[in-house]
Structures are given as C-alpha cells and as structure tokens.
Write a structure and sequence with these properties.
The complex is a heterodimer of chains A (110) and B (114). Chain A contains no helices and 11 strands. Chain A has 110 residues and is an all-beta fold. Chain B has 114 residues and is mainly beta. Chain B is globular, with a radius of gyration of 13 Å. The chains are: A mainly beta (110), B mainly beta (114). Chains A and B meet through strand 5 and strand 10 of A and strand 4, strand 5, strand 9 and strand 10 of B.
Chain lengths: 110, 114
C-alpha cells in the first residue's frame, strides 16, 4: 500500500541552527499535511499542501511540495527550544483517513 | 479551531479487565472519527475509522473483538479495550476532521495494563 517515508528519524541541533525534515512517497499524493507533536502531547495541524511546487511559510517554518507531488519538506530557520517535538507528514489514505509518516524527532539544545 | 476532547487522559488497569475511552467533538459534529495507537517513540498507527450510526472500519491486523468501537452520536465515539493485556499498554488518540481538511486530535489516553 501507500507509504510515506520520512527522514531523518532524529535530529539534534543547537539553538539557532536550521532544521529540515523530508517526506518521500513512491506514488503521487493528492495532498500532504504536516503535524507537530510535542513530547507527551497530541499532534497539532501545521499546514496542508495541495498544489504541485507549492511553497508556504509560517514565520520561521517553510513548507514545500515537490513538482511531482511525491515529496515534501519542512524547514525551520534558526530553531528555538519551543520547536522541540516530533514533526509528522501525513498522506490521505482514502475515506478521509490520515496515514502518518514515521516522524522526525527534533531536539534543540540551548 | 475545532476541539476534540478525550477522556480519561491516563488509566491503569489490571490484566483481563476492560477499559473504555471516550472521544468527543465539543463544538462540531463528526460523522467520522479515527482511533490511533502510538507506542513510545513511534508514529501514530491508524486502528480504525469510527462511523456514526454504523459499524467501525478496522485496519488490517486490528482485532475488532478486542477493540470495540461505538459511535452512537455525532459528537461521541468510544473505544473499549477488552480483556486488556500488558502488550495493549500504549497511547491511544482519537481525531476528527473539523473543516478545511484539518484533523483535530484528542489529548490522548495513556493506558497501562498491569
């Protein structure tokens, strides 16, 4: 079945450094969503990308959807300790189901 | 934004007993809700789709007789873990779509079976 691969699994950065996580699919995606889960918390919606080549920004976060709609990335500029958490990309599994990628756990050291 | 409330936030039960987890959409109606399970440092795995007024749809490998789902109203879905065993200990999270394609998640329930 469909599967979204996400890398890296874990990233360790110093505060102020940049961070990027990548999602790749073997099939064309209708859309991709990104969620953030803080330690001990629940996933929170960040963004949805629908169009080929789409780029969206939310303050220090930049989201991209590939031209072929098979990959996506989330880039955080100048990380802060509040960015700590796990970032998941998700794809639609049909019938409104969300299928989560493995997630990238971000640790930020002050 | 839409609010999904899940209760209890944590529960400890004895092996062999059953535990019920509630998921409510507080300010919107949800004909469909989803139940996920998350083991430590792992991703969320979809267990089942809860459909209001009809049977739940279970993902492959999920035992429907063990994880009973009831969606009796447009704002409430329940997941009952029957005859719980230590391997069922996990973080269970529900979600519902609150419009514009956004999924809203409950706070999650940490189940520990001893």
């Amino acid at each position: 079945g469909q599967q979204v691969m996400q890398i890296p699994q874990y990233q360790h950065v110093q505060e102020g450094e940049d961070f990027t996580t990548y999602c790749n699919s073997s099939t064309t995606l209708s859309n991709i969503q990104w969620y953030k889960q803080r330690p001990g918390g629940h996933p929170v919606f960040l963004i949805q990308l629908v169009k080929s080549g789409e780029v969206k920004k939310q303050k220090r976060l930049t989201f991209q959807f590939g031209e072929a709609k098979k990959n996506s990335s989330l880039h955080i500029t100048a990380t802060q300790t509040t960015d700590v958490g796990t970032y998941f990309c998700t794809q639609s599994g049909g019938y409104n189901k969300l299928i989560f990628g493995a997630g990238t756990r971000l640790a930020v050291h002050p | 934004g839409a609010v999904v409330s899940q209760h209890p936030s944590w529960v400890i039960c004895k092996s062999g007993t059953s535990v019920k987890i509630e998921c409510r959409s507080l300010d919107f109606q949800a004909t469909t809700m989803f139940w996920y399970r998350q083991f430590p440092k792992q991703s969320l795995m979809l267990m089942a789709t809860s459909n209001e007024g009809s049977k739940a749809t279970y993902e492959q490998g999920v035992e429907k007789d063990k994880f009973l789902i009831n969606h009796a109203s447009l704002t409430l879905s329940t997941l009952t873990v029957t005859s719980a065993h230590p391997e069922d200990s996990s973080f269970y999270i529900c979600s519902a779509f609150g419009g514009q394609g956004k999924a809203f998640f409950g706070q999650g329930t940490r189940l520990t079976v001893v």
